[in-house]
Structure to design on (694 residues):
């Protein structure tokens, strides 16, 4: 399979992007990578890969396609995509649109990635809005939250589509037989929540091509009660960012508290390994990127501060999405969704 | 001042409610308390107060008003209020409505408290929706979030009112000269967020009787960037409950991690005090209850699992709201809000 990697996305491009791509080629024999970026700069970066001898087996599976323009995170996504026809986003996504590659990976602008995927690669027929999914590092039971911030104003039927797409991902990529799908709400009872979420609940209860397990309170979102958490992108983003903020606050308070006494300092020293392991379990690097679900290709958004390992993980994730046929499953199952339309009610 | 305390609200009623009320009377000379609940049961509980000699100075400031019916958290609030005319909520709030008391404190049903306050005590003129405020234990800078879950579907102008009421509370109860008010959003830029929050931002930017400091991301909500966080009750409740969930998850992971090795066990032992202090700083008991802002009286919702200390703190908080004249400030400032109405635009 062919995976396009944006050589210029993220804070440490192009070095970590090129390194991560080569690492992936060394690991996966069946993968070819197309790096999109300024030709000369990318070629030079490949030339600077630490272990040049390792390139021997993989160089023939690595192509560079010239894309001299870069879209920054400060630019208006749609305007930038229109103006910069030679940007890594436009050139790279055109390759996917023309079926010359199956996947696109970028650590660049989230907005440009989403708008580009929507307009260049195109939605899967029947899907109203592609959604950004994020794996939350819930201990023992990773949780896929859809949508994590791409769609801030949602119709209930879109959230049902998010649920189906998230279920398809967890089934095909994480190998869960029957992923349990919860709906983010402020209480467990069916009558709880705002209008949008109540209407979504009513739709979710109909026969759907996924397993609905009811409302999930934000308090329980990190408690391993479901595999997919469906939500609009506003509440989803609040939950995601707040979790990061709460964890970071607690770690710094803990450090501050321990450093205030000799006993505490000794404790901190002895607990160092535990703290490290714990911090690592919340590290986005190993989790990979956020898949954009609902478009005609595997699209992965890697963290802006990705290192080579994070880029490698995002490429591995793209491969899993392609191998698992996630796009094909979504294409099939969108037709099986109960939309709550009047014809359905009579049936 | 006279404060009504619901003797039957919460998991450990009436004992902790009566104990907390007596403790408050011993502490505050200028407070009288009216306990509402089944007369005989409440009288007996008073008789069982541990230190009967301590009652001598306070017994004359403690009245019991008979309210034999109790509204549970399982009941539909509005229906229950209508049916149970002799419930603690109806009897107690009628006392506030008739100006026979200034405040009402309950650890019972949140729904009944809100509905009762709205229909029995009544809104402050000009306030569209009373809001539930919650103090988040941000280290060094407590954060008042309004609304914390009372209003799940909001108009932008309501959120502006929440902001003003939160600012009045932080000014009069927490003694902050110019509380900084942030708007919960998924990015800091003015154009970020869903439609509701964008419209709210536009209103907030107009001259208002509070200091607007812009959008606050959920990641920064716990980082001490503002004093009041204005939001609709759905997102607010997600943030509140998720914070509780994240902290509890992290503590249990930490415990699990440390208990896995001898070194860790020693560390846990040495760090015991720090853990205790840290846990206490997140303990709702000391923070008091959640004030319901926007009604014609001081109304405090104490936690359902309140102990006597928590009830005491909620009563102290009610006293602070009355002493600070929060209701009067809100009454005055509601007229000064910019509503974005056309007349205003022309000015």
């Amino acid at each position: 399979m062919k995976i396009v990697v944006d050589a210029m996305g993220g804070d440490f491009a192009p070095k970590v992007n090129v390194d991560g791509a080569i690492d992936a080629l060394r690991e996966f024999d069946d993968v070819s990578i197309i790096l999109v970026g300024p030709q000369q700069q990318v070629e030079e970066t490949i030339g600077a890969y630490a272990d040049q001898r390792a390139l021997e087996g993989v160089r023939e599976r690595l192509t560079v396609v010239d894309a001299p323009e870069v879209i920054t995170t400060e630019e208006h996504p749609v305007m930038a995509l229109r103006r910069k026809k030679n940007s890594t986003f436009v050139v790279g996504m055109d390759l996917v649109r023309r079926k010359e590659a199956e996947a696109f990976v970028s650590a660049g602008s989230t907005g440009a990635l989403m708008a580009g995927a929507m307009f260049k690669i195109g939605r899967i027929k029947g899907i109203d809005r592609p959604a950004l999914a994020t794996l939350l590092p819930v201990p023992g039971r990773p949780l896929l939250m859809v949508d994590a911030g791409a769609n801030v104003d949602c119709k209930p039927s879109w959230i049902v589509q998010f649920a189906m797409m998230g279920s398809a991902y967890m089934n095909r990529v994480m190998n869960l037989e029957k992923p349990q799908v919860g709906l983010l709400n402020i209480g467990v009872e069916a009558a709880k929540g705002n209008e949008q979420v109540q209407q979504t609940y009513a739709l979710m209860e109909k026969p759907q091509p996924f397993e609905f397990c009811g409302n999930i309170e934000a308090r329980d979102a990190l408690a391993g009660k479901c595999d997919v958490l469906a939500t609009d992108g506003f509440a989803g983003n609040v939950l995601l960012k707040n979790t990061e903020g709460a964890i970071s606050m607690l770690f710094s308070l803990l450090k501050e508290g321990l450093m205030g006494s000799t006993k505490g300092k000794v404790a901190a020293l002895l607990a160092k390994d535990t703290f490290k392991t714990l911090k690592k379990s919340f590290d986005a690097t190993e989790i990979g990127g956020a898949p954009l679900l609902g478009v005609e290709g595997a699209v992965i958004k890697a963290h802006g501060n990705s290192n080579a390992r994070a880029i490698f993980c995002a490429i591995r994730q793209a491969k899993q999405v392609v191998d698992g046929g996630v796009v094909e499953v979504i294409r099939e199952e969108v037709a099986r969704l109960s939309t709550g339309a009047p014809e359905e009610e009579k049936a």
